[in-house]
Design a protein that fits this description.
The chain is of the alpha+beta class and 203 residues long. It has helices at residues 30-43, 75-84, 104-123, 140-152, 176-186, and strands spanning 2-4, 8-15, 18-26, 49-56, 61-65, 90-97, 125-138, 156-163, 167-173, 192-202. Belongs to the IMPACT family.
């Protein structure tokens, strides 16, 4: 799967005097998607339509809306573009300002799908993978060298370092067993490694 390379972007296309403004967002839930749509509606309140499509959870959740356009001419082609590009955790809102010329069903399908495609091209994408998340706890004597080595590893993403009675490294890694064995070796067997689910990583 792929995701947006940026948190949000806005791209405009014009088709037969109608303006199609595509707002793209990274989103993590349906609730966040709805909030983003509401914000776009407030910002572009005078527009004719605000058609939407979003994909979440690696494609398991997908929704679209024609927002008053003829059924199947807006949200569905927008969603088809997102799915065709294997995008996830993404919301597209295409705001249309009617230019006085009717485009017909085929013209609308091409215009809405084209608006999303152009916006994704402009925003760029990144490859996404789900990596295991580990909490690695070490004493202060081993913390400095381990942090430096963790930051050098290409198969590790260090999210956070927590300082309590021990030092905890919150990491995502390509291979949990391999990293756990490495941590044990670096700490003379004293490191505690706790699995903590998985996280999405940009490659």
């Amino acid at each position: 799967m792929r995701g947006l390379a940026v948190g949000s972007s806005v791209t405009e296309t014009v088709v037969t005097r109608s303006r199609f403004v595509c707002s793209l967002f990274r989103v993590g839930s349906e609730g966040e998607a709805r909030e983003r749509v509401a914000a776009v509606r407030r910002e572009w309140w005078e527009a004719s339509h605000h058609c939407t499509a979003y994909v979440l959870e690696g494609g398991r959740v997908a929704r679209s809306s024609d927002d008053g356009e003829p059924a199947g001419t807006a949200g569905a082609p927008m969603l088809e573009v997102l799915r065709g590009l294997e995008l996830t955790e993404v919301l597209a809102v295409v705001t249309r300002y009617f230019g006085g010329v009717k485009l017909g069903a085929g013209g609308l399908v091409r215009a809405y799908g084209g608006a999303v495609s152009a916006a994704v091209d402009a925003a760029g994408t990144v490859e996404l993978e789900w990596w295991p998340r580990l909490l690695i706890r070490v004493d202060y004597a081993n913390a400095g060298s381990m942090e430096g080595l963790l930051r050098l590893r290409e198969d590790v993403r260090l999210a956070e370092v927590l300082f309590t009675d021990v030092v905890t490294f919150d990491v995502a890694c390509a291979d949990a067993e391999l990293l756990a064995a490495w941590a044990a070796g670096q700490s003379a067997g004293s490191a505690e490694v706790e699995p903590a689910g998985s996280v999405r990583v940009e490659l």
